[in-house]
Amino acid sequence: MRRPGAGARPETTHVTHAASTPTTPNSAPTAAPLGRSAFRGSIWMVFNALATRVLSLAATVLLGRWLLTSDFGVYGLAMSMSAMAGVLRDGGVRQLLVREHHRHDELVGSAFYMALAFNTLTGAALALLANFSHFWTDDPAKAADVARVLLVIAICQPLNTPGAMLQAKLLGGMRFGPVSLLAGLSSCVRFGGAILLAGFWPDSLGALAFVLPLPVCAILEWIGFWYYNREPMWSRSPEPRRWKGLLAQSVWILVGSFAIAMLNWGANPALAATSKDLDLVAVYFFAYNIVIQVGIILSANIGQVLVPAFSRLIAEPERLRAATLRALRQLMLVAAPLSLGLAVTFPPLERVLWGGRWERAADAVRVMGLLYPFVVTLVVPLSLLQARGSFRAWAMVITLSGGLSMAGACLGGVFFAGSPAAATNIAWLTGLLGGVSALAATLAIGIGRGISLGESISATLPAWVLAVAAALPVIGLDDLVISHWHPVPRFFITGTAFTLLFALLVRVCVAPHLREWLASAPARVRPLAAKLLLLPGVSR
User: Fold this and answer.
1) What is the pLDDT of residues 352-387, one digit of tens each?
2) C-alpha distances in Å from residue 172, one per residue of 97, 277, 329, 467
3) Which letter, b or e, does each residue of 348-360 get, where b requires 16 or more Cβ atoms within 10 Å of its Cβ?
4) Would you tell me which of 297, 459, 509, 537 could form a disulfide with 49, CB atoms 3.0–4.6 Å apart?
């Protein structure tokens, strides 16, 4: 399952050891503008991410029809190993520029060249790792495919550096519009390119169709962010004397980066190493790739908003505490219905889109969707730790969750490989270990930052409980009554029933949470949503 900060590349964060953010004209905005900027910025980024996910879904649908099952296994395994090697990516300095926005001119030269050095080292590590791809499969042809995909990803590592560093300046200045726009354009190239390549050369390219557009995306992001920044950071002095100090501060960030890779991708190589079955990896990865769309839409984008927003509230503990609880409530109110709604509707949706080809993944999607909301909302306490500079705690939390997830995949590969329900059983193991540990971490971090256990539970659990209460009867209806129906009406019946039941339960049981969420929605959306939910007084 997808975990916080998991997109195409794992996110890492670096701040200084300062106890609070220095007060500057740019870093101490008033309460109201900061709140509106942060939460509306997150909403617009989510809307853009939704459009991106439509492209991703189109690519998944078409590639799922055109490519072999093993091609998905090769891609999932190669991307997983790329993420694990990505512990070196950027050297932990990209997010330093986000948090220390007021020191951007001072740090940008050394940060850029340090990131370039680390990314070049990451690419070299991936190229070396390609020589050992036979460790995860006994099939020489599949091992060769894994190696080729890894080499393409290796080339992208240094190419990603300029775009990533230029993006950091926009994020630090809370200019979320250009970031969102360029992310959408890059996704169009990535997924559109994969569709074209797989459509014209499915047999000759196979899993390479997934990754060949990535170098083009890296160059596009470089050009796009340069258009908005026009900052030739590569002309600055590299100041290597600063690197030792930056690296000393980055130790826990690098540990946390590796932990994020374990959390997001570690189950795939663990499962491959213990089962030696890339078809099983493909089924598990396919289910995982469906469910993580929720995480990509929500946690990765909102995390980019919360870190700079929280960092500006460090000197105001009460506002920071209130903002943390508000973020938990609003995020769970979206994550729970999206995840559980996917779990409810995926079996008929799979029949519509893939005609039963990926039916083995349907139950695994249901299991992952049940517990995934806790993984998504973990981005809030993790962003709080990042903003406060608590890197050791941040890294330890992610390491624990990532280690447990990999342990579940290893156990699943040992005990369930060869079973018809192997992917589902492994999803239970990784989902329970990952979801429960994420919930425990959310509660523990809240307590450690002055938020009571009761406050954290009341912010996190109600929307999830209501989503489960709405999903269970609809799943029962689908399995026992309408499972033999045509998949199109079956999909619409299950989706509509879940949506209406969840909306009714939320309106009756947690109306204040709903009002709070609508108050942060864009002005054009608010009046219609308030009328549909019968919530007067939220339209302005």
Assistant:
1) 988 888 999 999 999 999 999 998 888 898 888 888
2) 7, 44, 25, 35
3) bbbbebbeeebeb
4) 297
Q: Would the CA dihedral through 292, 175, 314, 316 be positive or negative?
A: negative
Q: Quick one: tokens of 29? A: 């905005």
The Cα-based distances of 159 to 69, 82, 116, 534 in angstroms read: 30, 15, 9, 51
pTM of the predicted protein model:
0.73
6 DSSP assignment? B
In contact, 45 and 179? CB cutoff 8 Å: yes
Those residues with Cβ within 8 angstroms of residue 398's Cβ, 6 or more apart along the chain or in another chain = 3, 256, 259, 260, 262, 263, 382
In this structure, the number of other CB atoms found within 10 A of the CB of residue 172 comes to 23
**SS3 letters for 168-189?**
HHHHHCCCHHHHHHHHHHHHHH
Single out the residue of 163, 154, 149 nearest to residue 115, CA to CA: 163
3-state secondary structure of 397: helix
Q: How far is CA 423 from CA 94, 280, 286, in A?
A: 36, 7, 10
Tokens 């740090």 label which residue?
A: 107
**Residue pair 267/416 in contact by the 8 Å Cβ criterion:** no
- The Cα–Cα gap between 375 and 466 comes to 17
What residue ranges do the domains of the chain occupy?
Answer: 31-522
Q: In which residue are the tokens 């990131």 written? A: 115
